[in-house]
Amino acid sequence: MLIIAHRMRTVANAHKVVVLKEVCVAEQGHPAERMKQGGEFARMVESQSKAG
User: Which bin fits 7, alpha (ψ -120 to 50), beta or left (φ > 0)?
Assistant: First the structure.
């Protein structure tokens, strides 16, 4: 199943996320791994949690 989401909580329990930046795959993997790495996915989650 493919889910395209703007809300990070929608993909929090996914087995794998793929983060696209511009026209390239910026990173991919399990959401928990992506958070630990502190990359684009973590930045988006943190940004959204601060916004409300």
Answer: beta
- How many Cβ atoms are within 10 Å of 35's Cβ, its own excluded? 15
Two tokens, residue 10: 């929608």
| Domain residue ranges of the chain, discontinuous segments joined by + | 8-51
Question: In this structure, are residues 30 and 16 in contact, taking their beta carbons and an 8 Å threshold?
Answer: yes
> How many Å apart are CA 22 and CA 25, to the nearest integer?
8
Are 27 and 19 contacting, i.e. CB atoms less than 8 angstroms apart? yes
Which helix (H) or strand (E) is 36 found in, with range? helix 31-37
What is the tens place of the pLDDT at every residue in 4-17? 888 888 888 899 99
